[in-house]
Design brief:
Elements lengths: L1 E6 L10 H8 L10 E7 L5 E2 L5 E2 L3 E2 L10 E4 L11 H12 L4 E4 L1 H8 L13 H5 L14 E4 L2 E4 L4 H12 L4 H11 L5 H8 L1
Parallel strand pairs: 1-2, 1-6, 2-5, 6-7, 7-9
Antiparallel strand pairs: 3-4, 8-9
Pfam family, one: DJ-1_PfpI
InterPro entries: Class_I_gatase-like (IPR029062), DJ-1/PfpI (IPR002818)
Protein name: ThiJ/PfpI domain protein
Length: 202
């Protein structure tokens, strides 16, 4: 059983990781059912409140999390990213990347990584190029105007693209066979019902 760790904190944008958490935990259509699990990680053991008003009790704290015990760190969007309160999450992302463990960030979390220089040497995306450029970061030449980008295990996505963000994560983890992942995206990304029947036959 490999663990995907999802950072949780006040103002977490619930909708940006819904596809990720549901389908990593669900055995349906997985290449190896039960191979992955989701665990939540936060700066403190206290409950957090998401942007949608859900209260989440973290499974562990950041100082208890080691990169070699994780398959990936997922950083949802939030309103904390430009503040000191978000620095422990950025520091953990830096630790993961130094260890060669994938990190996936979406929406405001990409802003936090940009401010820390973690996007300066990787192709990446975000909500908009102007969003990151306005932060004064050094990676503008590597910005890609795409819903989600994976460059050497650093996955980034825009708030408007939770399905594409999830697809990039699934591909990195190898959760689905390529043809199954194509059908998954056909259903959830293109709203094509043919994807549902393909998944049922898979």
């Amino acid at each position: 059983m490999r663990t995907v760790h999802v950072a949780v904190h006040d103002t977490l944008a619930d909708w940006e990781i819904g596809f990720v958490t549901a389908h990593v935990n669900s055995p349906a259509w997985h290449r190896t059912p039960g191979r992955f699990q989701i665990r939540t990680v936060s700066a403190s053991p206290d409950p957090v409140t998401t942007m949608g008003g859900l209260r989440v009790l973290p499974d562990l704290t950041l100082d208890e999390l080691s990169a070699d015990e994780s398959a990936m760190l997922v950083l949802p969007g939030n309103d904390l990213w430009p503040t000191e309160a978000y620095q422990p999450y950025v520091a953990k992302a830096r630790e993961f990347r130094a260890a060669g463990v994938p990190v996936a960030a979406i929406c405001g979390a990409t802003g936090g990584l940009a401010l820390a220089g973690l996007l300066d040497d990787h192709a990446h995306t975000s909500n908009a190029k102007e969003f990151l450029v306005g932060l004064g970061y050094g990676g503008a030449e590597l910005y890609r105007d795409e819903p989600a980008v994976n460059d050497r295990g650093l996955i980034t996505g825009g708030a408007q693209a939770p399905v594409e963000f999830a697809r990039a994560i699934f591909a990195e983890l190898g959760i689905y066979e390529p043809a199954v992942l194509d059908s998954w995206y056909k259903l959830y990304g293109r709203q094509d019902p043919a994807g549902f029947y393909e998944l049922m036959s898979a």
